[in-house]
Amino acid sequence: MMKSFIFVALLVAVASATKVDYSGHMVIRVVPETKEQLDLLLTLVAEGTDFWEGPAPLGKPSDFRVSPSSYYQVARRLAEVNMDQTVRFTDLGQMIEREQQEIALRKAIHSGKAFDFENYHTLAEIEAYLVELNATSPNANLVSIGKTEENRDIWMMEISLPGSPANKPVIYADCAMHCREWVTTASCLWMIEQLANNPDNRADVKDALAYANILMVPSSNPDGYFYTWSTDRLWRKNRQPNSGSICVGTDPNRNFGDHFGGSGSSGTVCSETYRGPSAFSSQEATAMKNAIEKYRGRVVSSVSIHSYSQYWMSPYGWTNALPPDYNEIYRVMEASVNAVEAVYGTQFQYGSISNVIYDAAGSTADWTYGVENIRYSFALELRDTGRFGFELPANQIAPTAIETFAGLMVMVREIERSGYTPPAVAARHHLRH
Q: Active site includes 33?
């Protein structure tokens, strides 16, 4: 026991030596009720305030982080527009320290055993697991879909049954495009394991893979993810430099080429939602673009997995108008969130991005739907609704992954039942007959 304690203490000491210090930083929740109040929140966004959720439409909560030195000025500005506030977290530094201690303790206890799917892992640990799975599972094929600014591979696991036909439908999922959303990577690793190693033991997995090949990117922003471990736990963007600015990073989920530059993205380089100088200027967005285009005409669904807030959303993010086949999309979302709730009672709101959460032009879902014509394009926000936010404890990884996977398996089932056939699959089927 003493050895474990010393191991944990050393890990925490090394980890904290060079990291951004969030001691005393708070997360505040507000609910805008007037246009004046919402305008203030939008101004805070433009000024570079780190919004954890929002700014949301009128009547919905928004969470944002404030430093100890800026709190009183922000509180005064909120008071000037008569906007009440609730302090959600009083000291993020303490929360992050507790998180690191829990991770280290779990690693010490699990030392020497197989990959622990109920803990958070470094990028090196994740890559080692993916390489091992690639070598041991006949259903798994690990490929790099691109390189990052810091020359890291963006790994995608292709999961299919042996002997699958070349024109089979494809389902694509990316995780942790916003790299501080650790539970998404952890959940996607759990799901990759289920898909690759359990098609003979789970009827839902077997049925899903009989219908489609599933492609999953567990860490679609690896530079950023590495940085959240090495330096700044709450980093959101990628790590690309911005010409003429000390502010680093582009938000890859505002960098896609459908209504690029629209509402909900920022042209300010220091903003957390900075869209970049042009569409697909980020390596991460380009990598996803290339992966989707490789299977053009076969992709029936694209799912971008984020956290937090418990939402299952569809296009559009650039406007509150609804897409022409929204009724069918809504049907699949409803079945999926019902499946999520059936596991542990976790409730997801669902609908179009702009109506459920906020405007987000240049997102993955809008591009896959609007440009690549992928009807079932979704954006998910996993647990929770703000109790822990991005600091979701490791003991919630497994239930988060299990309920999300249940929703995704029902999504696949409902897409298959719809009879929808992507263009390339339909064309090849016609030629055979």
A: no
Match 């909900």 to its residue by tokens.
264
Is position 428 within any domain? yes
In the chain, the number of structural domains is 2
Axis crossing angle, helix 71-80 with helix 35-46, rounded to the nearest 10 = 150
- Tell whether 184 is covered by a domain: yes
pLDDT more than 90, % of the chain: 86
Identify whether the C-beta of residue 237 lies closer than 8 Å to the C-beta of residue 245: no
Where would I find the H helices in 68-202? 71-80, 92-110, 123-136, 182-197
The CATH number given to whatever domain includes residue 402 is 3.40.630.10
What is the C-alpha R_g of the chain?
Answer: 21
**Domain match, 51 and 163 both:** no
- Per annotation, catalytic residue among 381, 391, 403, 414: 381
pLDDT in tens, 183-200: 999 999 999 999 999 888
Q: Per the omega criterion (within 30 degrees of 0), is the bond before 316 cis?
A: yes
Q: Write the pLDDT tens digit of every residue in 280-294.
A: 999 999 999 999 999
Assigned token pair, 384: 């929770």
In a domain, 2, yes or no: no
Q: Please state the pTM of the whole predicted model.
A: 0.92
- The answer to whether residues 336 and 313 touch, using CB atoms and an 8 Å cutoff, is no
